[in-house]
Amino acid sequence: MPRRRLWGMIGGTALLLTAIVLAATPKDRFQSEPEPAVESASRQMVKQIPVAEKDIDIDGDGRMEKLTLVLTEGELRNEREPGPFQGEYYVGSFDAVLADAEGAEMQRMDLTPSFSELMQFRKGSFELIVNDYNRDGHPEFTLGQYGSSNNFIYNLYAIKPGGFEIAAKSLLVAASEYSIPLNKMSTGAFQYQYYDNSKGSWIEVTYAWDGMAYRKAMEKAAEHVIGSEEEEEASTRLTFIPASYGFDLAFNADYHVNADEIITVDGKAVVPFTSVLSMDDKTEKIRRQLEFIEPETRRSVLHTKLTDAVTTNGYGSSSELKSYGMLDGSRLVYANAAEQNGRLLSRYETLDLNTGVQKTLVSGGVDKLGEQDFYARNWLSPSGNKLVLNQYRTGLLEVLDLKEGTVRAFQGKYAHSWPVFMTVPSPDGTLFWYEDIEKREFRLIDLDEKRIASVAYPDGLFDYPAWAWSEDSRYTAFHYTFDKSRKHVISLEETEDIAPQGIKVYSREGRQVASLKSDSDRDEYVEIAAWLPDGRTILLRYFHLDREAGRKESLPMLDVGYRIYDLVSGTFTSLDTVEDLEGMRSSDLIVATNAKGQGFLLDRKSQRVWEGKRNSSIEEVALLSPAGDPVILRHDTEKAGAEIWRFDRASNEWESGSLAVSLREAAFVAEHWLVSEGTRYVDLRTVFSESR
User: Fold this and answer.
1) Cis amide prior to 181 (ω within 30 degrees)
2) Is 289 exposed, middle or buried (0-12, 13-18, 19+ CB in 10 A)?
3) Which residue, 59, 86, 422, 475, is the most exposed by fewest CB within 10 angstroms?
4) What is the distance, to the nearest Å, from the Cα of residue 533 to the centroid of all Cα atoms in its chain?
């Protein structure tokens, strides 16, 4: 008998009761039958008996509706024979009823046909377990009936505006309650397990939401029994769900993936999972686990537990407990924490992705982070084997030497002002800009706390973040306006997005190398649209603002034009804008992307540029494959799905494919594989119908 929380059932003793139910017709199914010589059960006709209920806010108006399971017609039976149905049970037809806050009926559904036989529930009441497994905003609840000594059979019902619907049917689950929580997974999936008597083993079943309905995505032998110590250790419950385009990762919904932490290494994706759960009013449990996903084999080649700790500052601890990058080709740098005498000790460790060996490089102070503080931008400088930690409120900045195992605190304080960060580190992590609000200046500082340069506030407005770095960290640029007029503000959010009139470009040594200005007499603006891969040229975008359109989300741009500026020679090259990708056919196409994710294609020989759309409904991203081929991803927020174009430099031809799912924050993880938000893996060979 499997070790689970089940009744001690021994089926097969209710044959007389079963015979009565099966022999009855709808008209006379509750009429008395001739009494047997020895009466095994007593029966009493009943109706309109509520047996389960749940208060839910179905429409989000703050008022609670009531979901009730009601026996509409049936019997109260008292079975005297030992067995799974011994005792008092309601047997008959049951309705699910939804009533508003005043008790007026809103919806009703006869549930009996969905089980194809009369339903029965032990006398008393139970709670209906409600969740939203597919995250469509419509609550769902489970209802089950006895199946065997090990399993119940459940249906999943959805409460939709138009009425109740059967979302999933005949789920064989190892449980014994009438309504149960299914194991909620990410991406609209759920899991459960059942015990297979014929095999003497546990089976795990995964259902996934495809946008229209639940489908059984996988059924396999369970690696860990839910609720066991082994399953607790592997509590992400990672599952690879096959899809026409590749596969999706489903996992325990208590966990989440931060796309900023995902790192690609040798055709695999490093994906950390984080769970923060409240234990009581003061403490939270933080768990972090890592999976090293190999798309080609559709498996995780390394599963590692990173953190399992209790904290009284969950937000602050989560801001520190992150993966920061690679020290070399195989060692991942991450922050950890362990309990020591009831307090937390920070540790900074490496994980060898080839061997799974974890090593502590630096141990931090106990509870050094205040109860109300958290970390701002922490960053890794791989070339210097250094990790920089910066507390948001106190401004404490520490440099951890990962090679020597030492910690050095800066003399100055580098505090921040909500809701923005005042530091902008270079991509290589060796330098950073700091905005000093009191002194109204920006300072360029290295990791020895040496001031490289100081730049005073401009007379006008400036953008956030104030500084933009080239990818190779050779240059950094500052956008500003000539005056403080509010007409330069494009959008109003937590921070103001401005239309710049001027750009100052500095070298990493702190020397100003360029000052670029728009024609303010013509109400013109200029900004760096993208840094180009050669490191010495930038793509400039000139534009006007359509103030006649009025402000909704932001002011649209008009009369957009592009020029390339060479920082070394100081020369400009004007470009023609191409609307259609088919107009960009050259083996020398250049791919560029800015910090906002907007993509560009450039043909410098023909002096052409293609600009990817990025607005409230359309998002077009340009990527460069590991083989050097341009790839364009197009996502329409008003429609489900994505389109992909790939340029073959050998043939100078574009090929296209489409997906029925979206691709957010996508990046190449291997030659033919894209990963979206760490959880969706797309095989381009399948998308473009290539043979393997």
Assistant:
1) no
2) buried
3) 59
4) 30
Helical H segments across 199-299, by residue range: 229-233
SS3 292: strand
Q: CA 239 to CA 545: how far, in whole Å?
A: 48
Task: Answer for the pair 591, 599: CB distance below 8 angstroms, yes or no.
Answer: yes
Distance in angstroms (rounded) separating the CA atoms of residues 46 and 68 = 17
Residue spans of the chain under pLDDT 70: 1-41, 224, 226-234, 342, 364-370, 550-553, 690-692
19 Cβ partners below 8 Å, 6+ apart? Answer: none
CB atoms within 10 A of CB 654: 16
Alpha-carbon span 131 to 642, nearest angstrom: 29
How far is 599 from 639, CA to CA, in rounded Å? 21
- Tokens 């174009």 belong to 645
Report the alpha-carbon distance of residue 104 to residue 111 in Å, rounded: 20
DSSP-derived secondary structure for 486-526: GGGEEEESSSEEE--SEEEEEETTS-EEEEEE--GGGT-EE
Cis upstream peptide for 465 (omega within 30°): yes
How far apart CA 577 and CA 571 sit, in angstroms, is 19
For residue 644, give both structure tokens: 């992909």
* Spatial CA neighbour of 178 closest among 150, 147, 205, 142: 142
Q: Give the pLDDT confidence score for residue 148 in this predicted structure.
A: 87
Cα dihedral 442, 444, 450, 454 sign? negative
Nearest to 246 by CA among 296, 315, 205, 192: 296
368: left (phi over 0), alpha (psi -120 to 50) or beta: alpha
Longest Cα–Cα distance in the chain? 109
d(CA 651, CA 644): 18
First vs last Cα of the chain: how many Å apart? Answer: 46
Angle at 570 between CA 566 and CA 575, to 5 degrees: 50
Q: Which amino acid is at 652?
A: N
At residue 122, φ and ψ (nearest 5 deg) are -60, 140
* Residues 338 and 310 sit within 8 Å (Cβ to Cβ): no
DSSP 173: E
Query: Do residues 183 and 192 make contact, with C-beta atoms less than 8 angstroms apart?
Result: yes
Helix (H) or strand (E) segment spanning residue 112: helix 112-115
